[in-house]
């Protein structure tokens, strides 16, 4: 009985994680629920930049990253060298966390990590092997591709239906399956 309760909880958790991760790449948009949250003092590390990478020049050995949101957003540039760890995560359009140090006049990236979505407390993500096992065991489920329709049309997992994040936010009740006991699994591109 505990397994069934957990399986019923997975669709909601995955949907929340997907929506919070911003798979649709909508930057700067806030919802009423986000605005209504009480301010929580987050201790910021002055040597860490978080945000989407807007460019990387291998020739100049620089990375540009947008930090902050809305009117307070600004683009910062850091240099990198052969000692910079995780340079593969500095991809244009992907969110990253860059730890840096000051060297003379320049900021140098020391470690770059992908910026992953935070899942709600008590929820774990489903990995590829777990999904594969569910498919092999023919567990009844609805598999939802939450990427933009163009990406879905280029290729998708067998049996997956296309429900892009903007459509899900707009018409949630109309696009989600009516059977609430059936497992609901969302996937998208990028780090989520």
| Large-scale geometry | elongated
The strand count comes to 8
Q: What's the total helix number?
A: 6
Report the structural category. alpha/beta
| Beta-strand residue percentage | 25-35%
Q: If you average the pLDDT, what whole number results?
A: 78
Q: Percent helix among the residues?
A: 25-40%
Distance between the termini: 29 Å
> Helices and strands, in N-to-C order?
HHEEEEEHEHEHHE
CATH structural fold name of the largest domain: Oxidized Rhodanese, domain 1
Q: Main sheet, how many strands, which sense, barrel?
A: 5 strands, antiparallel
Report the CATH C-level class of the largest domain.
Alpha Beta
Radius of gyration: 19 Å
For the largest sheet, list the strands in their spatial order.
3-2-1-4-5
How many domains, in number, for the residues?
2
Unreliable residue runs: 18-41
């Amino acid at each position: 009985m505990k397994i069934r309760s957990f399986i019923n909880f997975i669709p909601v958790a995955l949907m929340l994680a997907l929506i919070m991760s911003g798979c649709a790449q909508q930057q700067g948009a806030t919802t009423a629920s986000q605005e209504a949250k009480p301010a929580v003092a987050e201790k910021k590390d002055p040597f860490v930049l978080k945000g989407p990478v807007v460019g990387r020049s291998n020739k100049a050995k620089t990375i540009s990253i947008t930090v902050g949101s809305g009117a307070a957003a600004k683009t910062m540039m850091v240099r990198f060298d052969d000692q910079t760890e995780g340079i593969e995560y500095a991809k244009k359009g992907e969110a990253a966390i860059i730890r840096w140090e000051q060297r003379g006049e320049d900021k140098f990236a020391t470690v770059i990590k992908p910026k992953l979505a935070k899942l709600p407390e008590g929820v774990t993500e489903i990995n590829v092997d777990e999904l594969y096992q569910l498919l092999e065991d023919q567990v009844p489920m609805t598999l939802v591709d939450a990427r933009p329709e163009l990406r879905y049309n280029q290729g998708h997992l067998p049996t997956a239906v296309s429900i892009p994040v903007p459509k899900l936010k707009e018409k949630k009740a109309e696009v989600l399956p009516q059977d609430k006991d059936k497992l609901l699994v969302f996937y998208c591109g990028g780090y989520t």
